[in-house]
Amino acid sequence: PLLPWQQLAADLIGEHDGRGNLLHPLVVVTVPRQSGKTALIGAVMLHRMMMRKQARVWYTAQTGLKARDQLKELMEFVELSKAAPLFKTRRGNDLTSIELPQFRSRTVAHPPTADSLHSNQSDLNVIDEGWYFAPELGSALMGAIVPTQATRPNAQTIIVSTAGTARSTWFHSYVDRGRAGEIPLIDYGVGADVTDPTDFEAIAAAHPAIGLTQKFSILPAAYSTMDSPGEFMRAYGNKQTVAYERLIALELIELATVTTDLPPGRPVFGAAVSFERDDAVIVACAVDAAGVPVCEVVEQWPHPEGVPERLALLADRHDAHVVIAQDGPSASVADAAER
Description:
The chain has about 350 residues and is α/β, with parallel strands linked by helices. Helix content is about 35%, strand content about 20%. It contains 11 helices and 12 strands. It has helices at about 5-15, 35-50, 65-80, 135-150, 170-180, 200-205, 220-225, 230-235, 250-255, 305-320, 330-339; strands at about 25-30, 55-60, 90, 95-100, 105-110, 125-130, 155-160, 185, 270-275, 280-285, 295-300, 320-325. A hairpin with a 4-residue loop joins strand 4 (about 95-100) and strand 5. It starts with a helix and ends with a helix. The relative contact order is 0.12. The model has no long low-confidence stretch (mean pLDDT about 90).
C-alpha cells in the first residue's frame, strides 16, 4: 500500500475531469530522502502504461547510467510481483525498458540529453533528481519533451527531486512557481524557521515517511555520517542550501590560481568525476620552466557522459596523453576512454 503522502500525490498526478482527461500536464514533486518517491513514481509509470494502448513512458535522471539503474530497481519489483507474467523487462546499455505486451506499452530509460527523445512520442515523461540539472540542460530537456507530447492526449511531465544547492536554479524555479500557485506542487520539508540540523524532532515532523516506513533513528545516524550539516538539511529536511560548500579553502585556491597561459609544449589531459556524478571536468596539464605543474580547466560538464569521446578528440588534436583515475567515481570514464 502507498503511504498517505504517496496516495495524495498519486491522486493529484492522476486528477481528471471525470471523463478521463488529466488536469495537470506538469507536476513537481519535492520530498526528503527516504520518503518513497521512487516507489511513487514507479507506481505512476506502471499505471500510465495501462491507461491506453501503445503508451510511451520515458524516465531520466542525472545521467543515462543512473536512469537505467533506477529503472532496473522498478524492474526487479515487477519481476517479483504477482503481475510479473503481464510484463516483459529488458536490460542493456542500448535499451533498458519495461513492456506491457498486451497493450504494446513501454517505459524506457534515457539519458538527459536534448536529442535522446528525437523522433519519439511520449505520454508521460519523468525527470528524476531535478536538482542535478544545470539551467541549460534542464531547459534543453524540457524543450525536447514538448514536441514528443504534441499529438498525445493526456500527456504529462513530472519533475521529482529533493531540494538542491545554490546552483540548482532550474529545479528551484519550478518549486517557486508551485509555491506561487502557478503549477501543481507536492512539497514536504522543514520550514524556514528550522535552522538547527540537530533538531531531529522538527525534521522528523516534516518528513512524510518517519514513523511509517522509516525509523526516527535514521536521522541522527545520517547526520553523523554526512559530509556537512548543510548537506544533511538538504537531504533529510528537504531544505535548499543557499551557498556552495568547499572542500578546499577559497584562500588556498586563490593562492594557487594564476592568469598566465598554460606553459608551451605537449600537454597531458586529465578528467575527474564527482562522487555524485553530477559534475565532470577535463583539464590540461603541463610543467613550466621552473618545474612547477600547472593545470587549466578545459571544459566542465554536468555529467560524465560524452567525456571519453571529447578526450579522444583532444588527445588526437594535441598528440597528448590522457590520465584518469581507474577507481572511484571516475572509473567508468577511465574504462570507456580505454575502450
